[in-house]
Amino acid sequence: MTVTTPVTTLSADEARRIALRAQGLLGAPDRRGGVRGVLRHLGAVQLDTISVLARSHELIPYARLGAVGRPAVEEAYWGSGASFEYWSHAACILPVEEWPLFAFRRRGYRGRGHLWGHQVTPETYRHVLDKLRAEGPLTSTELGGAKKTAEWWDWSDTKIAVERALAFGDVVCAERRSWKRVYALAEQAVPTDLFEQDPSDEECLRTLVAQAGAALGVATRADLLDYHRLRAEQLDAVVEASGLVPVEVAGWGPAGAAAAAWADPAALAAPPRGRHRTTLLSPFDSLIWDRGRTERIFGMAHRLEAYTPKDRRVHGYFAMPLLTGGRLVGRVDPAREGRTLVARQVSLDSPRHLEALAAALREAAAWVGCDAVRVEALNDEGLRPALTRLLDA
Known about the structure:
The chain is α+β, with helices and mostly antiparallel strands. The chain has a domain of about 80 residues. The strands form four sheets. A five-stranded mixed β-sheet has the order 11-12-13-14-15, sandwiched between helices. A hairpin with a 2-residue loop joins β12 and β13.
């Protein structure tokens, strides 16, 4: 006789708290692990070129640890060989321990034989590898192949070759200089015990799905697919063997119905408790980088408007959601002018969150070396006197 194990049902509130704890935003932060600990726990930190308050990869540990020194963030990522850059959710910083796990993606790129339609001669490819072998880590400029223009489709042959070598795993980027990638031979830069591992695609995928589930806490199939941008057939082949357990979450389905999901068993073992972080979040933070998940969990339809024409923006160029009490309660579009943090546009859902907004602005200003805050546009101007008093306190 087949015995059917009952599926755990979570409320939407329980799922939200599990997700916050899994992302390191509920409960006391683990400061012992520092920035590297945050990276290892999340499994991936997305990179982006936009820098207003700070670059997005700096904002991720800040959101979880508070005002950790910005030089310490850069050192933790690129100063000790503890991480590398590769294609995960997007272009991401990954803990170096994950090098073997992306063998499936490197093999996939090799099987395609080209990168984004670019072609390059075998001679150019060999020249890049020989130059790195002879001279050590180099930027694309030092290799003699910087971009002709700012557009990716106008790369030089050398730039195409080194990016292909990066995708294939012959080359690794474990360092940046002035925001430029520094390329090194993978066999020289990746620790030998990791470089020599060659897990099967099934092993890679099973481990990455388990890691994504632990970083998300509770996740739908779509959420798990999105975390490391897997294909449906890749996820479906391994999810049942990943160690994640099936659950249902009330309110996550259409019209408020329950939805099937997967949960990290450790996340279900004890109710999430602790202090909620009050902070501004990068739009590329893994708590909210999946817009559908963000709306499902927090009820906020958020989008990055940096590439939206200025006259059509609603919340601003780089609007950062305000997290407090485990909920997203507003947005701030930040900028810096000298030693002043400028909130170009502030949208707050309710006056009761005014103190949280002021606290988040003051902490962010101090973190980036500003000693003043100026709020330019406030969605409810009646709140300005109270906000000014809180900022001046």
